[in-house]
Design a protein that fits this description.
Distance between the termini: 42 Å
Oligomer: single chain
Strand content: 5-15%
Structural class: alpha/beta
Order of helices and strands: EHHEHHEEHEHEHEHHHHEHEH
């Protein structure tokens, strides 16, 4: 069952034909059947957010964005709009069924895991694959604003699916530092963690080693001249020279635009809380090995080993994959899926005989 939040007096549920027409317009496809899957049609997190915003605007009913996991076809979404009984939120979202110990992939800074669907379904592994979404994305609870609380919450739910190790963990972007801290927690309890995979994951730049911080400043400055008029880029860099109190992430990477509705407000709150957690996080040493998956065009113009090399005792293996920070898990996901599948297989063999 899906939790239904009502903000204003509900109007009539739209007809199935109306829902199909909305999907056609939103996804820009000529034909949509009642049982066609949102993700198979090319839907992404932004389009899901727009879909639910339009449903709330026209019906007065507010579905959490997590509803798309269970109701990913027009027919099932129609049924969800007719439900009244609330569902209990879980941070675990199954992306792929399988056998054996699962792979768990932690969300990025936005908290929702729609962007991880293609990756989960593209992995060549017999194992189940779960995504871990942030508390609060459905609007039912306050989001966590520090990594330690996130780790407590996710570990408790993860153990409900898999009580004992070995654990296979991955994290996309901000989720990488959460996955690494989860691995520390499992190791402290005596569980093996054969795989920790960081998918273009970094802590906040101000926590980087001094030399790496200088490289980040240089890369951001160069990017200003690539993306802005010369005069505007020059002024921006001059202002940075006058104020060197720290290194901040570029604004477009910090916040996104959210519609002013129940779903949009919930996701905005999760995003703000996650960014606070990122700013407050202090990286620590990790005893095991780590696999780092770096896109051709990364967020930061520095080598991962300059940031993580001294903090990872078990060694850092870097894999270059096609795409940029976003396309590597969406339109160009095949390269990442192939590289992660090989790493997951190697880790599974090590766990079997190690």
């Amino acid at each position: 069952m899906i939790q239904l939040r009502t903000r204003v007096k509900p109007t009539a549920v739209p007809s199935l034909d109306d829902m199909i027409a909305l999907w056609q317009r939103l996804l820009n496809v000529a034909a949509v059947g009642p049982d066609d899957d949102f993700f198979d049609l090319g839907g992404d997190s932004l389009q899901a957010l727009t879909l639910f915003h339009e449903i709330e605007r026209t019906t007065g009913r507010s579905l959490p964005i997590t509803a798309i996991y269970e109701a990913s076809t027009p027919a099932r979404l129609m049924a969800a709009l007719s439900e009244e009984a609330p569902a209990r939120f879980s941070p675990l979202v199954r992306l792929k069924s399988g056998v054996g110990e699962p792979l768990f992939i932690v969300h990025g800074i936005g908290g929702n895991v729609l962007e991880l669907f293609k990756l989960g379904q593209s992995l060549d592994t017999p194992r189940p694959v779960y995504a871990i979404q942030a508390r609060g994305v459905d609007g039912s609870e306050e989001p966590h604003d520090n990594v330690a609380d996130m780790v407590d919450y996710y570990v408790a739910h993860l153990r409900s699916v898999q009580p004992r190790g070995p654990y296979f963990l991955a994290g996309y972007s901000f989720g990488g530092i959460i996955a690494m801290d989860m691995a520390r927690r499992f190791q402290a309890k005596g569980d093996k963690v054969p795989l920790v995979a960081l998918i273009d994951s970094y802590a906040h730049p101000r926590t980087f080693p001094k030399q790496a911080r200088h490289l980040v400043r240089l890369g951001v400055s160069i990017n200003q001249f690539r993306t802005k008029p010369f005069g505007e880029a020059l002024r921006a860099n001059w202002n940075k020279l006058k104020n060197r109190s720290g290194v901040a992430l570029p604004t477009p990477m910090i916040m996104a635009d959210f519609p002013e509705d129940g779903t949009g407000t919930a996701l905005r709150n999760v995003h703000v809380a996650a960014f606070k957690a990122l700013c407050d996080y202090q990286p620590r040493h990790y005893l095991g090995p780590v696999e780092f998956f770096k896109p051709t065009t990364s967020i930061f113009p520095i080598a991962p080993k300059r940031v993580w090399g001294d903090l990872i005792e078990g060694g850092l293996a870097v894999h270059d994959v096609p795409g940029d920070h976003g396309s590597m898990v969406r339109s160009e996901v095949a390269g990442l899926a192939h590289a992660m599948s090989l790493a997951l297989h190697r880790a599974g063999e090590m766990a079997k005989y190690g």
